[in-house]
Fold this sequence. Notes:
It is built from 14 helices and 51 strands. By secondary structure, the chain is an alpha+beta fold. The strands form twelve sheets. A seven-stranded mixed β-sheet has the order 19-20-26-27-24-22-21, with helices on one face. Strands 33, 34, 39, 40, 41, 44 and 47 form a seven-stranded mixed β-sheet that branches.
Amino acid sequence: MKGLTKLTAVSLAVAAALPIMANAEVLISEYVEGSSNNKAIELYNNSDVAIDLTGYKLVRYKDGDSASLDMVELTDTIAAKSVKVILHPSAAITLPASTDSMTGNLYFNGGDAVGLLKDGVLVDVVGEIPTPAGWGFDTTFQRKLDSLTASTTYDASQWATLDKDTFSGLGSLDAAVTPEPSTFTCNGATLTNIYDIQGAGDSSPLIADGSYESANEVTVKGIVTSRSDSLYKGFFIQDMQGDNSPYTSDGIFVFLNEAAPDTIQPGTEVCVQGKVNEYYGSTQINLKDEQKFEVGALGEVPVASAFYVADGETLTQALERVEGMKVVLDAGSEMKITRTFSYDYDGRRNNMVLSHKAPLMKPTQVFEPNSADSIALAKANAVNQLFVESDFKAKDGEVPYFPDFNAETGYIRVGDQLTNLEGVIGYSYNAYRILPTNLISAGDFIRVNDRTDAPTVADMGDIRVASFNVLNFFNDVVGGDANPSGSNRGALIEEEMVLQRTKIVNALVAMNADVVGLMEIANNGFGELSAIQNLVDALNAELTDDQAYRFVEIEDADKYEDKFIGSDAITVGMLYRPARITLDGAAKVIATPEQHAAEGAQTREKDGVVEQNPSYDKFQRHSLVQTFSINDEKLTIVVNHLKSKGSGCIEDWADFNENGEPADLQGKCNSFRVSAAKVLGESLKDVEGDVLVIGDLNAYGKEDPVAVLTDYDASTTDHVIRTASWTTLNGKVYEREGSVIDKGYGLINLNTQAHGADTYSYSYNGELGNLDHALANESLAAKLVGIDDWHINSVESNLFEYGSKYTGELVKTESPFSASDHDPVIIALSYPAPVTPVTPTPEPVQDSDGGSLGYFALMLLGALGLRRRS
């Protein structure tokens, strides 16, 4: 309710009595970050006199930066005990008549804190500095009554959080009316049991079909199990007796749309009266418009019920049974980490995701796209997720319910089983969420596949080859050479870069590979100030001479602008140990296709409306080829990094997938990656000797690019694979229209051969799969001794990576864990040294007269069995 969070006659008197900072009578009283250009900042003059705003200005702290950027220089005056509203010039916001307002260039977004400066000195701020990603996205914040003092430190508890595009309070601080004290009482009311409200179905039996609200109000009494002042804005209550049925929940959420009064605490008996709502799938009692509740005595908090998933039901069905209740995840719950603590782009906050029994696998890692099995697994994954949340958005680098979160002893890995976590079950953003009510320790994680100091194959075979995506290793901050784009995608300060390099080096040393293919290394040449030279120097400093590496350099004729491998900011690279393996000829580059479609080159139609495409210019990184000689045998290694799944190509536009995930779950630009796979296959089909294709193909194990390079056969499946249209290769038209692939190029997926389909090197959105591959021709596949995805990155929290922008005071370590976001893949191969035949030299044999028999005579006697005894 507006009156509970905005100034009233009473609150004005309270505010006037509060101490005011020097030069800080003016403060921020409201922050609006709504849809499109609906942005506004409301200021309040907390003094008894009008104030000249000359010297005041609004600034923003962009996306977690600690340095401010100017937005609006303030002008005019602001009257005593009055407000002034600053609006974006294009905001669709209507203010009350006679509101003191001005327009200004408010270009903050949901990841920006906003500060108020006076003569260059910060006097007030809304949002932490640096600000967590997405902190204020689509949100209105209103300052509470007891917090009308400017402060340079943000305290979330001093602000009420309102829904997107809430403008009703702007400009009307002094018009708010103090609400009358509640006179509601439950005396004489007929009580409804919580379990009767919840029922045994997906929605409340008190709500008619086709409706989202009950026709009548209900009166309910229960014990508070948890408050939610931010995430849900209300409190959870639970029936102390229950109906002893596993099919109906004994708890429910009471929605206030603001923080509950301080008198409502866990253990408090509360009686509420309101209509039952199904709010986007969440069953709740809605007190938003009229707060009818009566606070009783404070007693014991209800004991958490052990959560379990029964045979034959999904995790979602099990969670529906306990929606609103306080539960505990014990060993019998079998809840595993499927996405470790990291940023949730849907909820725009850090959280963690659990699944039942095992982490989720990407459907197209194990099944052919669009197959019945793939579709079924996608559906099963969707109902096998439980988010672990915190009420307020977590501070950078902190896990609110796990205070000992750290890189060495308090880590969280995908696959760990979580136990002893208590919390209430809510529902929002189309997912069930547990809001913890207790703290856990490292001992509450059962390590299923714990960290290892080295990959299992580190000492196997005669040689080892590794593939390693090094997550934008750039050396710009230490004076590295420039790349073609001039952009730095990696470390922003030297401390980050040194940490990143140290973690990568420690991983490489432990891997003990004789050849290493690199992806995402800065494309800044091969000179003394190149990233690859910087990495090799640091790596060799940790090794003996016979373990030392060199990098593979392409010939000048193959270099873009006489320096680079292609024109992207990042590239592929290759390291090798000259003491262990020998170069055989010069390195080569396999150019990959580009896509260039002019605006209007293609049309699409939907609901009778015909549209022309925008222009598309898409590129992908070239591949690097080097042949080696090892014990008189040839081994050709190809390092690749195909187009990412994130940004769309013209095929995605044509299928109306430019803003979403394609239905086949292969990500965007799949046909474009298929085009690259076709070029690779054609380029390698006549290579003599052993061939090994490694790298980040940005395609999971059963997806089209991998199928094209391996065992795809159009005659055995209904799944059609096509290349991209509008492609060029080496500056010439490659394919004007996409073509159908009939047969794969016959390489063998070594991971699948050794371990089956369910391997992984990468985790995205809670699903595991292999983007990093090792594909071999038949002669090399026969030499496989072992292959290992060393899980040092995919299952770890990315908060332990080198970047410090969103990790606060979290201490990083130099261990190889979280050296990147992809796991390295290490392949052990058998290349035994050739055996040189040894001709035996026989001892002379004497005859009975003491003479010696000749060699051939000896052989003859031996063959006849007539060899004489001496």
